[in-house]
Amino acid sequence: MSRTLHELLGEAIAHLDALHRHLERGTIDDETVADAVSLRLASMIETLQRGATELTTDLFGDEWSVIWAMRNRIAHGYAWIDIATVRATVSEDLPAVEATLRALLEKTASDES
Questions:
Q1: For the chain: N or C, fewer Cβ within 10 A?
Q2: CA-CA distance, 75 to 86, in Å (whole number)?
Q3: Residue of higher predicted confidence among 110 and 89
Q4: How many CB atoms lie within 10 A of CB 64?
Q5: 8-34: buried (b, 16+ CB within 10 Å) or exposed (e) per residue?
Q6: What pLDDT does 3 receive?
Q7: CA separation for the pair 2, 8 (Å, rounded)
Q8: How far apart are CA 61 and CA 70, in angstroms?
């Protein structure tokens, strides 16, 4: 059974909520926090990928390739991931992505009603 757009958005938001809980425990300078944040970030991106174009290029346009590249850096080269890149992604890029996803989640909730 394939997941609905609303379900995938809910899963992506759950990963973001967990990411924020990890950041409440400390900063990305702490290796354990950095690991947890990185893995939740990659999981959130993978969830979006399962939504096909509705949650990737349709939603983020040309930025999707950059977002997916971040997931690949974490998933395939994790031992060498630059924590400064993760820090910059979380502080500079993630707020806009999260706002977009939360707005779409709200819209899909009303569409399903």
A1: N
A2: 13
A3: 89
A4: 18
A5: bbbbbbebbebbeebbeeeebeeeebb
A6: 85
A7: 10
A8: 15
Round to whole Å and give the CA distance between 15 and 28: 16
| Token reading at 60 | 């983020």
Q: Which residue has tokens 């993630």?
A: 94
* CA distance linking residue 66 with residue 78, whole number of Å: 17
- Per residue in 53-107, pLDDT (tens digit) is 989 999 999 999 999 999 998 988 766 778 898 999 999 999 999 999 999 999 9
Which is nearest to 71 in space by CA: 106, 45, 97, 108?
45
User: What's the Cα-to-Cα distance from 92 to each of 1, 5, 25, rounded to whole Å?
Assistant: 36, 26, 20
Total number of residues shown for the chain? 113
Q: What is the DSSP string of the chain?
A: -PPPHHHHHHHHHHHHHHHHHHHHH--TTSHHHHHHHHHHHHHHHHHHHTTGGGGTHHHHTTHHHHHHHHHHHHHHHGGG--HHHHHHIIIIIHHHHHHHHHHHHHHHHHHH-
